[in-house]
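A.,

Following up on our hallway conversation. Structure tokens first:
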């Protein structure tokens, strides 16, 4: 039987579930309920594995790690993002990579909407004020009739388009691969990134953390935004130049932000974002609902089972090389 290793079930989401039992039917399963704190420690866990079932992005699959796993044929990622893995190196080494697209689109869409409403209506600030004995300080923002700019129109982005329309917002979008057919299907207009930043009252980010999107939103893009506009990010911290964002929030270049992801996680105790009142912070929990967790775990196990039956599903393709 193939050796299947889960190197990083911490905090546990797979352990004790029916999906753990399904994995045990597919191979000799080894689960580690702690995080590998170094490349050497990760290698000591997966060096003899045929299949790795990856849960946490803190496990980094570099070219060096993968080339030192001579039996490794599949890395099944629980999650949509794969920025912790060198996909090109995996392809060159003959290692298949799979992920679980769409499993958390509903939950992440709801979190994005929640952050948008929390920032617009100053829910966190007003909660703090009233607990401290105060009362309302200033106006909040109505979203009805305003423009929502959605960056990235995959599963989550499509859900955010629906939610924005549901509360009466005009929705525009930007994606790496626009087309008239997709615009018609989603009922939106694709615009350039510059136009989206200028026109939007709320910008909501839903792209993968890949080289093409690294610091996609930087100082220049933030300066294009309205001073009354808000930025929401439930995608990856790498998509935003965090230093530029902090400056924009401190100077009032933009009105506020709602963030579920950060460049460094957990957020350092002395991080400037912790002291800003115009930011709502969430600890990367957008997909942490039972329904999404179980769906993602099951899809990742399905990917393992299908790979073993010679018809792999949800394969992550390496980026095109110039």
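Then the amino acids I'd put at each of the 322 positions:
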């Amino acid at each position: 039987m193939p050796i299947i290793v889960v190197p990083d079930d911490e905090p546990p989401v797979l352990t004790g579930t029916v999906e753990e039992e399904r994995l045990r039917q597919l191979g000799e399963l080894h689960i580690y309920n702690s995080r590998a704190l170094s490349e050497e420690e990760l290698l000591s866990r997966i060096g003899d594995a045929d299949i790795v079932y990856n849960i946490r992005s803190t496990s980094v699959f570099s070219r060096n790690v993968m080339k030192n796993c001579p039996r490794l044929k599949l890395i099944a990622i629980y999650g949509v993002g794969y920025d912790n893995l060198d996909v090109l190196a995996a392809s060159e080494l003959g290692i298949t990579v799979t992920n679980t697209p769409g499993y958390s689109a509903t939950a992440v869409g709801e979190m994005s909407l929640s952050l948008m409403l929390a920032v617009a209506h100053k829910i966190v600030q007003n909660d703090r004020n009233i607990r401290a004995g105060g009362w309302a300080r200033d106006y909040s923002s109505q979203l009805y009739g305003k423009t929502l700019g959605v960056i990235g129109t995959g599963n989550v982005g499509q859900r955010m388009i629906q939610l924005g329309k549901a509360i009466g917002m005009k929705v525009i979008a930007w994606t790496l691969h626009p087309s008239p057919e997709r615009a018609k299907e989603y009922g939106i207009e694709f615009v350039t990134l510059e136009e989206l930043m200028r026109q939007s009252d709320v910008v909501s980010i839903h792209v993968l953390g890949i080289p093409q999107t690294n610091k996609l939103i930087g100082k220049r893009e933030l300066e294009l935004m309205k001073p009354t506009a808000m930025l929401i990010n439930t995608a990856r911290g790498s998509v935003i130049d965090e230093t530029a964002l902090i400056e924009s929030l401190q100077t009032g270049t933009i009105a506020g932000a709602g963030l579920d992801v950060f460049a460094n996680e957990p957020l350092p105790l002395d991080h400037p974002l912790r002291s800003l009142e115009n930011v709502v912070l969430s600890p990367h929990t957008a997909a942490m609902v039972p329904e999404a967790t179980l769906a993602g775990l099951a899809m990742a196990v399905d990917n393992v089972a299908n790979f073993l039956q010679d018809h792999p599903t949800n394969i992550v393709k390496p980026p095109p090389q110039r």
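The longest helix spans residues 290-308. Curious whether your intuition agrees with the design.

B.
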